[in-house]
Write a structure and sequence with these properties.
Serine Threonine Protein Phosphatase 5, Tetratricopeptide repeat; 3 domains; 23 helices; 584 residues
Length: 584
């Protein structure tokens, strides 16, 4: 009997082992690996959607990644005197997490997913149209991520091969030079231009996704950062000429900041958010944002809007920007309508515009002095303690949507990252840099001005290249793009941190009062409570790499902000800075 039990036991063990081995061969379809996934069209189309998901994180464009460059500029300041303050003053230390880690981390999320798609697209069995769209989108989004990284952090590790992540030796990489990263950015955008359809031919695909026009616009931006004006000008003229699809200015400037007019003819590329009240309930802050019931909105409104309506009230507009709008009237005597859509101020004149066809309200809009569904008789303060002028862009302040703000990732207004007006003003800048002040450059500018009812500029008023540059840099661009992402990048590419005259100028622009009111006085550094660049340290026009990131990767040496290196000599060895000149 003992032998029989022994034989039965052995048989049971053998059968059990065999059954276990058989069970191990069964793969869970809900637990795929990167090796199993991405080998066909359906998988790669899902993977591309996952790439777009990453540009909607807090560190990319849902909050900090977008607003950090705005506060780095001279037309936005930190009204909370808490969050963002080191980035407003440009003296942040590398242990501060907000800008030094979150943007870095979330942009590399985008890079990682795009690299995965690019590692699969050439081996998957795809038709030509699908191949071009999938690869083109991955290249565009990776280029966008690296464009953000290199303009925020100066020099960063460059990963373009998904296989690099397979080894700790290759995954931990040292920084590439800024030029090397820009070379890759230009390459990605240029190839994407040749692969992606235009907004005209892309059909439903082109509504909300990257197109060849988006890639062309960002390619020109990347070229201009390194003063490649001739090359950029060719691309910009092709965009204007319709090579990459038809673009035009929307008749109403406000259409660029509304949920009802998203992905319109002026938009080259925008980040997609779900309309007010249509998202889920999960408040997913980065680096998550994978819940099917996520809110699907951004939190820029929570930073920009006035505290009286429930916002965090971290950021406000500078009095300089306000007075820039007030300095020039439209041809019909009304205020520049961009003031209305950019800043949440009370203007007594708005009440007289109701029902009239004016530059401010081209369609006889009856909203007048209304903010968050309520009539206002004075400008609400941005921050209850410090004061400041509230920002209206990327908020529901000027729309009949809600009476108060639900802070967090709830605003559904698509953030337009590049508009056709930027193409026109960049074309004017390139024409001026190459040929000096010309009527061609003036015509590009006048097209943007005409949309809002301003009088045409005259070539005779700009005797030199420096004068027209001054008009573009410190009048036209801040009024068209005030409080949007990109001004800080402009200040760097123009060299304003590397010339004492220009540095003093942006200090004057960034003055503000800490008097608890929405102060609109024309201020100077002598009369203001403070100004954004008072504590600026050379090299800190870029944000330092987070210390824990450098500790984890000993190959990282940091950038000019980490090492307190003045970038003036390097910039001036390659390019010049336009001197400050007085305009008529």
């Amino acid at each position: 009997m003992k032998k029989i039990y022994l034989i039965m036991s052995v048989a049971a063990l053998v059968l059990g082992a065999a059954s276990c081995e058989s069970a191990l061969d069964v793969r869970n379809p809900n637990n795929q690996t990167t090796y199993d996934f991405g080998n066909n069209k359906a998988d790669l189309e899902e993977a591309i959607i996952a790439c777009y998901n990453r540009i909607r994180l807090e560190g990319t464009f849902a909050r900090v990644g977008y607003t950090m460059d705005a506060v780095r500029g001279d037309e936005v300041w930190n009204s909370s005197q808490q969050w963002y303050l080191p980035y407003d003053n440009l003296n942040s230390v590398n242990t501060d997490e907000i800008g030094n880690l979150w943007i870095w981390r979330d942009c590399y999320h985008v890079v990682n997913r795009c690299n995965f798609v690019l590692s699969k697209v050439d081996v998957a069995n795809l038709d030509e149209d699908s191949y071009n769209k999938i690869k083109g989108q991955a290249l565009f989004l990776r280029g966008l991520a690296y464009y953000t990284l290199v303009t925020y952090y100066q020099q960063v590790p460059l990963f373009i091969d998904y296989a690099q992540y397979s080894s700790i030796q290759t995954m931990y990489s040292e920084e590439s030079s800024q030029d090397a990263v820009f070379d890759q950015v230009e390459s990605d955008f240029k190839e994407a231009m040749s692969l992606l359809p235009s907004r005209d031919t892309g059909g439903e695909f082109a509504a909300g996704r990257a197109t060849c026009g988006a890639a062309a616009g960002y390619y020109a931006r990347a070229l201009m950062f390194r003063h490649k004006y001739e090359e950029a000008y060719v691309v910009l003229k092709d965009i204007i000429g319709g090579t990459y699809g038809h673009y035009e200015l929307m008749p109403d400037y406000g259409d660029n900041f509304s949920e009802d007019t998203e992905n319109n003819l002026e938009s080259l590329f925008e980040v997609q958010y779900m309309d007010y009240g249509t998202g889920g309930v999960d408040e997913e802050w980065t680096p998550v944002n994978i819940s099917p019931d996520a809110t699907q909105g951004h939190a820029v409104e929570s930073n920009y809007a006035p505290a009286a309506y429930g916002s965090w009230a971290d950021l406000a507009a500078s009095p300089w920007l306000y007075n820039l709008f007030k300095a020039e009237r439209c041809t019909d005597g009304t205020l520049d309508p961009r003031l209305y859509w950019t800043l949440g101020t009370y203007e007594s004149e708005y009440d007289t515009y109701t029902g009239a066809r004016t530059a401010a309200y081209p369609n006889g809009d009856p909203r007048a002095n209304v903010l968050y569904q309520g009539a206002i008789t004075e400008t609400p303060v941005s921050n209850n303690a410090s004061g400041g002028i509230p920002i209206a862009k990327w908020t529901y302040g000027r729309y009949d949507v809600c009476s108060s703000i639900v802070t967090g990732l709830h605003c559904g207004i698509n953030i337009r990252l590049m508009r056709y007006s930027d193409v026109l003003l960049r074309a004017a800048e390139c024409e001026n840099e190459i040929n000096g002040p010309t009527q061609i450059a003036i015509d590009y500018i006048n097209e943007v001005r005409s949309r809002v009812g301003l009088a045409n500029l005259e070539l005779a008023d700009f005797p030199t290249k420096d004068h027209l540059f001054e008009q573009i840099a410190n009048v036209e661009r801040p009024k068209e793009f005030g409080c949007e992402n990109g001004r800080g990048i402009d200040l760097i590419r123009w060299g304003f941190f590397y010339d004492e005259g220009r540095l003093d100028q942006i200090r004057q622009h960034s003055c503000y009062m800490l008097d608890g009111t929405p102060n609109t006085d024309e201020l100077t550094v002598e009369t203001a409570s403070d100004y954004s660049y008072k504590y600026y340290q050379p090299g800190h026009e870029y944000f330092p790499v987070y210390q824990s990131t450098m500790t984890s990767n000993p190959k990282l040496k940091g950038n000019s902000a980490n090492n307190n290196i003045d970038n003036s000599d390097e910039f001036l060895s390659k390019w010049s800075v336009h001197p400050v000149v007085e305009l008529k």
